[in-house]
Amino acid sequence: SGYSSPSSLASPGSATTSLSASTGPSSGFASSPSQKSLQSILGPSSRFRHTQGRVLHRDTHLTNLRGLSLTTPGESDGFCANHERVALPLLSAGGQIAILELSKPGRLPDVAMPTIQNGTAVADLCWDPFNPLRLAVAGEDAKIRLWQIPEGGLQEPLQEPEAVLQGHTEKIYSIRFHPVASDLLVSSSYDMTVRIWDLNAQQEALCLQGHTDQIFSLAWSPDGKKLATVSKDTRLRLYEPRHSLQPQQEGPGPEGGRGARLIWVCSSDYLLVSGFDSRSERRIFMYRAQALPEGPLSIIGLDVAPSTLLPFYDEDTSVVFLTGKGDMRVFLYEVTPEPPYFLECNSFTSSEPHK
């Protein structure tokens, strides 16, 4: 309750000004010119600038993970977790998925464990936010399978899905549950459509149009009213599915065709996009959600690396964490709804690459 939003914080210059005003030359204490000029050169800094990261004790880890699939598409995070368990695609044939209980950390047995038998290679997967036992899995056969995990975890292989959703004509690469309405799921596919599914009726409810190339990423706004996408055709699109199947707005996205991600930040008023420029430099972009045609408000170049940066946003602190598959570094930025929009914090470096 004591948290103040970035916009209500005093600007960095105001403290200096009020100090010099209250302690004028007569008091013999005035802020030095060098102090002021240093602040104007360095600009504002984040409250979380000196954040330190550390790896938790091994007692909390799940170790001896064997045969993980490292071939999930770049549009997928490659695994998914909720507060109870984590789902990991495996390399073995038949699209097997391991389900690990977070309440049982430690070394996993050397012998094979019971898995979900998806029947086809896994393209993406996500947990239902309203039912921690339900897992949606997008397959390379253009179908979405819904799996119900037994209480307490898998004791034997799971072979029959609760439901199979069909409608896409080509491989699916992203699925996301609706954040505030249960039994709604969105998916994007190489057929260049975005489909919204009613899981109660086990059928397609809406098919959104307007993309001319591969859809790299999609994200529901936190209130669930809008859906944003970023595409290989270098366009950002904003949909309001309740009102139209066509995009409400379009704007210029990252130029690089290697991949991109997007998330909603700053109380759903802004979109943060991670992508590449034409020379394969990794960049992050900030857009105002109501003014996509105006283009990005701010762009920061980070480094040159092959993997797309995956952004994770913490609403309480307005800090975004970015890392990619195979990276050893996690970038941290505080995002604010006013210039300069990105305030750099300490990055975290691990001793081994992230898989």
From TrEMBL:
Keywords recorded for this protein, A-Z: Actin-binding, Cytoplasm, Repeat, WD repeat
Organism expressing this protein natively: Ceyx cyanopectus
Family: Belongs to the WD repeat coronin family.
Compartment(s) where it occurs, according to its Swiss-Prot or TrEMBL record: Cytoplasm
GO cellular component: cytoplasm
Keyword Cytoplasm: yes
Protein name: Coronin
WD repeat ranges, renumbered to this chain: 165-207, 208-240
Ranges of biased composition (kind: Low complexity): 1-28
Gene behind this protein: Coro7
Region Disordered: start-end pairs: 1-44
GO biological process, one term: actin cytoskeleton organization
Record flagged with keyword Secreted: no
Superkingdom, natural source: Eukaryota
